[in-house]
Specification:
single chain; 315 residues; alpha+beta; 4-stranded antiparallel β-sheet; 11 helices; 11% strand
Length: 315
Protein backbone atom coordinates (compact mmCIF):
# COMPACT_ATOMS: atom_id res chain seq x y z
CA UNK A 1 0.00 0.00 0.00
CA UNK A 2 1.26 3.44 -0.92
CA UNK A 3 0.18 6.87 0.22
CA UNK A 4 1.15 9.97 -1.79
CA UNK A 5 3.91 8.01 -3.46
CA UNK A 6 5.32 6.68 -0.18
CA UNK A 7 5.54 2.94 0.39
CA UNK A 8 5.57 3.38 4.19
CA UNK A 9 2.53 1.61 5.65
CA UNK A 10 3.30 2.15 9.35
CA UNK A 11 4.25 5.32 11.24
CA UNK A 12 7.98 5.91 11.17
CA UNK A 13 9.94 5.65 14.39
CA UNK A 14 11.03 8.85 16.13
CA UNK A 15 14.56 8.37 14.79
CA UNK A 16 13.49 7.61 11.23
CA UNK A 17 11.03 10.50 11.06
CA UNK A 18 13.56 13.01 12.38
CA UNK A 19 16.36 11.66 10.19
CA UNK A 20 14.31 11.81 6.99
CA UNK A 21 13.12 15.33 7.76
CA UNK A 22 16.69 16.46 8.49
CA UNK A 23 17.76 14.94 5.17
CA UNK A 24 15.05 16.85 3.32
CA UNK A 25 16.01 20.18 4.89
CA UNK A 26 19.75 19.60 4.40
CA UNK A 27 19.29 18.95 0.69
CA UNK A 28 16.98 21.97 0.40
CA UNK A 29 19.55 24.18 2.16
CA UNK A 30 22.27 23.03 -0.20
CA UNK A 31 20.08 23.73 -3.24
CA UNK A 32 18.86 27.16 -2.13
CA UNK A 33 22.34 28.31 -1.12
CA UNK A 34 23.39 28.04 -4.77
CA UNK A 35 20.81 30.63 -5.86
CA UNK A 36 22.12 34.20 -6.06
CA UNK A 37 19.07 35.74 -4.43
CA UNK A 38 18.72 37.16 -0.91
CA UNK A 39 15.39 35.49 -0.28
CA UNK A 40 16.64 32.14 -1.51
CA UNK A 41 19.56 32.52 0.89
CA UNK A 42 17.14 33.26 3.74
CA UNK A 43 15.33 30.04 2.82
CA UNK A 44 18.67 28.21 2.83
CA UNK A 45 19.43 29.47 6.34
CA UNK A 46 16.01 28.35 7.60
CA UNK A 47 16.49 24.90 6.04
CA UNK A 48 20.05 24.61 7.40
CA UNK A 49 19.06 25.41 10.98
CA UNK A 50 16.09 23.08 10.79
CA UNK A 51 18.27 20.25 9.45
CA UNK A 52 20.61 20.72 12.42
CA UNK A 53 17.80 20.71 14.97
CA UNK A 54 16.15 17.62 13.54
CA UNK A 55 19.45 15.73 13.31
CA UNK A 56 20.32 16.57 16.91
CA UNK A 57 16.93 15.26 17.99
CA UNK A 58 17.33 12.12 15.88
CA UNK A 59 20.61 11.45 17.68
CA UNK A 60 18.89 11.90 21.05
CA UNK A 61 15.94 9.70 20.08
CA UNK A 62 18.35 7.00 18.94
CA UNK A 63 19.73 6.83 22.48
CA UNK A 64 16.47 7.27 24.39
CA UNK A 65 13.27 9.07 23.31
CA UNK A 66 12.88 10.54 26.81
CA UNK A 67 15.69 12.95 25.94
CA UNK A 68 13.32 14.67 23.51
CA UNK A 69 10.77 15.69 26.12
CA UNK A 70 10.60 19.37 27.01
CA UNK A 71 9.98 20.73 30.47
CA UNK A 72 10.88 19.87 34.03
CA UNK A 73 11.48 16.12 33.43
CA UNK A 74 14.16 17.02 30.88
CA UNK A 75 16.19 18.71 33.62
CA UNK A 76 17.10 15.30 35.09
CA UNK A 77 16.54 12.74 32.36
CA UNK A 78 20.08 13.01 30.95
CA UNK A 79 21.68 11.64 34.10
CA UNK A 80 18.93 9.05 34.47
CA UNK A 81 19.59 7.78 30.95
CA UNK A 82 23.34 7.77 31.49
CA UNK A 83 22.94 5.85 34.74
CA UNK A 84 20.73 3.24 33.10
CA UNK A 85 23.00 2.76 30.09
CA UNK A 86 26.31 3.01 31.96
CA UNK A 87 28.07 -0.33 31.64
CA UNK A 88 24.85 -2.11 30.68
CA UNK A 89 23.78 -3.98 27.56
CA UNK A 90 20.47 -4.95 26.12
CA UNK A 91 18.47 -2.12 27.67
CA UNK A 92 15.44 -1.34 25.53
CA UNK A 93 14.87 2.40 25.00
CA UNK A 94 11.77 3.89 26.50
CA UNK A 95 8.80 4.59 24.28
CA UNK A 96 7.94 8.19 23.54
CA UNK A 97 4.60 9.31 24.89
CA UNK A 98 2.13 11.02 22.62
CA UNK A 99 3.07 14.29 21.00
CA UNK A 100 4.73 16.07 23.90
CA UNK A 101 6.68 19.21 23.05
CA UNK A 102 10.34 18.52 22.36
CA UNK A 103 13.41 20.20 23.79
CA UNK A 104 14.66 23.49 22.44
CA UNK A 105 17.01 23.24 19.43
CA UNK A 106 20.04 24.62 21.29
CA UNK A 107 19.46 22.24 24.18
CA UNK A 108 19.18 19.33 21.75
CA UNK A 109 22.56 20.23 20.24
CA UNK A 110 24.09 20.55 23.70
CA UNK A 111 22.74 17.19 24.86
CA UNK A 112 23.85 15.46 21.66
CA UNK A 113 27.36 16.86 22.13
CA UNK A 114 27.54 15.52 25.68
CA UNK A 115 26.26 12.10 24.69
CA UNK A 116 27.87 11.45 21.29
CA UNK A 117 31.55 12.08 20.60
CA UNK A 118 30.92 12.30 16.84
CA UNK A 119 28.72 15.38 17.28
CA UNK A 120 30.92 17.21 19.77
CA UNK A 121 33.50 18.69 17.33
CA UNK A 122 30.74 20.30 15.26
CA UNK A 123 28.57 21.85 17.97
CA UNK A 124 29.73 25.40 17.24
CA UNK A 125 28.83 24.96 13.57
CA UNK A 126 25.42 23.67 14.65
CA UNK A 127 24.81 26.69 16.87
CA UNK A 128 25.88 29.01 14.04
CA UNK A 129 23.30 27.38 11.76
CA UNK A 130 20.62 27.77 14.44
CA UNK A 131 21.53 31.44 14.88
CA UNK A 132 21.32 31.98 11.11
CA UNK A 133 17.93 30.29 11.00
CA UNK A 134 16.60 32.45 13.82
CA UNK A 135 17.88 35.62 12.19
CA UNK A 136 16.41 34.63 8.81
CA UNK A 137 13.05 33.49 10.17
CA UNK A 138 12.44 36.19 12.75
CA UNK A 139 13.93 39.31 11.18
CA UNK A 140 14.71 38.37 7.54
CA UNK A 141 18.33 39.18 8.36
CA UNK A 142 21.42 37.28 7.25
CA UNK A 143 25.02 38.43 7.29
CA UNK A 144 26.18 39.05 3.68
CA UNK A 145 28.23 36.28 2.05
CA UNK A 146 27.83 33.90 4.99
CA UNK A 147 25.27 31.41 3.69
CA UNK A 148 28.01 29.18 2.27
CA UNK A 149 29.68 28.89 5.67
CA UNK A 150 26.34 28.26 7.36
CA UNK A 151 25.42 25.46 4.96
CA UNK A 152 28.89 23.89 5.12
CA UNK A 153 28.69 23.95 8.93
CA UNK A 154 25.25 22.36 8.77
CA UNK A 155 26.65 19.70 6.44
CA UNK A 156 29.49 18.90 8.84
CA UNK A 157 27.11 18.57 11.79
CA UNK A 158 24.54 16.46 9.98
CA UNK A 159 27.33 14.25 8.63
CA UNK A 160 28.39 13.59 12.22
CA UNK A 161 24.78 12.70 12.99
CA UNK A 162 24.66 10.35 10.01
CA UNK A 163 27.75 8.60 11.36
CA UNK A 164 26.23 8.38 14.84
CA UNK A 165 23.04 6.87 13.45
CA UNK A 166 25.05 4.32 11.45
CA UNK A 167 23.77 5.61 8.12
CA UNK A 168 25.85 6.51 5.07
CA UNK A 169 26.53 9.72 3.21
CA UNK A 170 24.97 8.52 -0.03
CA UNK A 171 21.68 7.82 1.71
CA UNK A 172 21.70 11.34 3.17
CA UNK A 173 23.01 13.39 0.25
CA UNK A 174 22.12 11.16 -2.72
CA UNK A 175 23.93 12.19 -5.90
CA UNK A 176 25.75 14.94 -3.97
CA UNK A 177 27.36 12.42 -1.60
CA UNK A 178 30.93 12.54 -2.94
CA UNK A 179 30.87 16.31 -3.38
CA UNK A 180 29.55 16.95 0.13
CA UNK A 181 31.94 14.48 1.75
CA UNK A 182 34.86 16.25 0.06
CA UNK A 183 33.60 19.69 1.10
CA UNK A 184 33.10 18.61 4.70
CA UNK A 185 36.61 17.15 4.80
CA UNK A 186 38.15 20.28 3.25
CA UNK A 187 36.28 22.50 5.67
CA UNK A 188 37.45 20.54 8.70
CA UNK A 189 41.05 20.48 7.45
CA UNK A 190 40.96 24.26 6.98
CA UNK A 191 39.64 24.81 10.52
CA UNK A 192 42.36 22.58 11.98
CA UNK A 193 45.06 24.30 9.91
CA UNK A 194 43.94 27.77 11.01
CA UNK A 195 43.78 26.69 14.65
CA UNK A 196 47.22 25.07 14.53
CA UNK A 197 48.68 28.22 12.95
CA UNK A 198 47.21 30.33 15.74
CA UNK A 199 48.68 27.97 18.34
CA UNK A 200 52.10 28.07 16.66
CA UNK A 201 52.06 31.88 16.55
CA UNK A 202 51.06 32.13 20.21
CA UNK A 203 53.72 29.58 21.18
CA UNK A 204 56.41 31.64 19.42
CA UNK A 205 55.17 34.84 21.07
CA UNK A 206 55.27 33.19 24.49
CA UNK A 207 58.85 32.06 23.85
CA UNK A 208 59.88 35.61 22.98
CA UNK A 209 58.39 36.87 26.24
CA UNK A 210 59.63 34.21 28.64
CA UNK A 211 62.70 32.42 27.26
CA UNK A 212 65.86 33.35 29.13
CA UNK A 213 64.09 35.04 32.04
CA UNK A 214 64.86 33.90 35.60
CA UNK A 215 62.05 32.04 37.37
CA UNK A 216 61.26 35.04 39.57
CA UNK A 217 60.92 37.27 36.52
CA UNK A 218 58.74 34.71 34.73
CA UNK A 219 56.42 34.56 37.73
CA UNK A 220 56.25 38.36 37.93
CA UNK A 221 55.48 38.64 34.20
CA UNK A 222 52.77 35.99 34.51
CA UNK A 223 51.13 37.92 37.35
CA UNK A 224 51.31 41.12 35.32
CA UNK A 225 49.67 39.50 32.30
CA UNK A 226 46.94 37.98 34.46
CA UNK A 227 46.26 41.36 36.08
CA UNK A 228 45.71 42.83 32.61
CA UNK A 229 43.17 40.16 31.64
CA UNK A 230 39.99 41.66 30.20
CA UNK A 231 36.45 40.30 30.14
CA UNK A 232 35.92 38.07 27.09
CA UNK A 233 32.20 38.70 26.66
CA UNK A 234 30.99 35.20 27.46
CA UNK A 235 28.16 34.44 29.87
CA UNK A 236 29.95 31.51 31.53
CA UNK A 237 33.58 30.40 31.64
CA UNK A 238 36.22 28.25 33.28
CA UNK A 239 39.97 27.83 32.84
CA UNK A 240 41.89 25.06 31.06
CA UNK A 241 45.48 24.39 30.04
CA UNK A 242 46.50 26.49 27.05
CA UNK A 243 47.49 24.41 23.99
CA UNK A 244 50.10 27.04 23.06
CA UNK A 245 51.95 27.96 26.27
CA UNK A 246 50.79 25.28 28.70
CA UNK A 247 49.61 27.69 31.40
CA UNK A 248 46.36 26.72 33.12
CA UNK A 249 44.89 30.21 32.81
CA UNK A 250 43.33 29.88 29.35
CA UNK A 251 39.63 30.69 29.51
CA UNK A 252 36.89 28.75 27.77
CA UNK A 253 33.89 31.03 27.30
CA UNK A 254 30.30 30.10 26.60
CA UNK A 255 27.37 32.27 25.61
CA UNK A 256 23.85 31.62 26.83
CA UNK A 257 21.26 30.81 24.17
CA UNK A 258 18.12 30.77 26.31
CA UNK A 259 14.58 31.94 25.75
CA UNK A 260 11.39 31.91 27.80
CA UNK A 261 8.36 29.99 26.60
CA UNK A 262 5.13 28.65 28.02
CA UNK A 263 5.13 24.93 28.72
CA UNK A 264 2.20 22.55 28.27
CA UNK A 265 0.69 23.73 31.56
CA UNK A 266 0.87 27.40 30.59
CA UNK A 267 3.80 28.10 32.90
CA UNK A 268 6.71 30.24 31.77
CA UNK A 269 9.93 28.18 31.57
CA UNK A 270 13.48 28.83 30.36
CA UNK A 271 14.56 26.76 27.36
CA UNK A 272 17.83 26.64 25.49
CA UNK A 273 21.46 25.80 26.05
CA UNK A 274 25.03 27.10 26.06
CA UNK A 275 27.07 27.68 22.88
CA UNK A 276 30.88 27.59 22.97
CA UNK A 277 32.25 31.04 22.22
CA UNK A 278 35.96 30.20 22.18
CA UNK A 279 39.22 30.18 24.11
CA UNK A 280 41.49 33.03 25.11
CA UNK A 281 44.81 32.91 26.95
CA UNK A 282 46.03 36.01 28.80
CA UNK A 283 49.60 34.69 28.94
CA UNK A 284 50.40 34.06 25.26
CA UNK A 285 47.49 35.89 23.64
CA UNK A 286 46.03 32.81 21.93
CA UNK A 287 42.46 33.31 20.71
CA UNK A 288 40.46 30.44 19.22
CA UNK A 289 36.90 30.36 17.90
CA UNK A 290 34.51 27.71 19.19
CA UNK A 291 34.93 25.50 16.12
CA UNK A 292 38.72 25.74 16.39
CA UNK A 293 38.61 24.65 20.03
CA UNK A 294 36.50 21.65 19.05
CA UNK A 295 38.69 20.84 16.02
CA UNK A 296 41.79 20.65 18.25
CA UNK A 297 40.04 18.24 20.58
CA UNK A 298 40.33 20.47 23.66
CA UNK A 299 38.20 19.13 26.52
CA UNK A 300 35.22 21.46 26.88
CA UNK A 301 33.44 19.64 29.70
CA UNK A 302 33.02 21.85 32.75
CA UNK A 303 34.89 20.03 35.55
CA UNK A 304 32.11 21.02 37.94
CA UNK A 305 29.57 19.25 35.75
CA UNK A 306 31.85 16.22 35.60
CA UNK A 307 32.07 16.14 39.39
CA UNK A 308 28.29 16.36 39.73
CA UNK A 309 27.80 13.55 37.23
CA UNK A 310 30.37 11.38 39.00
CA UNK A 311 28.71 11.97 42.36
CA UNK A 312 25.34 11.05 40.85
CA UNK A 313 26.67 7.69 39.58
CA UNK A 314 28.38 6.94 42.87
CA UNK A 315 25.25 7.42 44.95
Amino acid sequence: MTTNGCSETRPASDVERLYLASRYHARAAQKMAQVADQFANLDAAVHAGTAVELMAKAVLADLDPRLLVEGAPAQHVLLDVLAEHHGATGIAPAKSKGRARTVNASMAVELAARLRAECRPHSSAAHAALDARNAAAHSADLEPNTIGMVVDGMAAYTAAGVETLRRNSKDFWGVLSNEMTARISERQQAIVADAEQKVATATAYHAQLFDGLPEESQAALTRLLLDRTTYTGGDYSWTVNCPACGHDDAELSWVADFDVERDGDGEWVAVGGMALLGLTCPICGLELEGEEVEALGIDTVDPRDADDEYDRHER
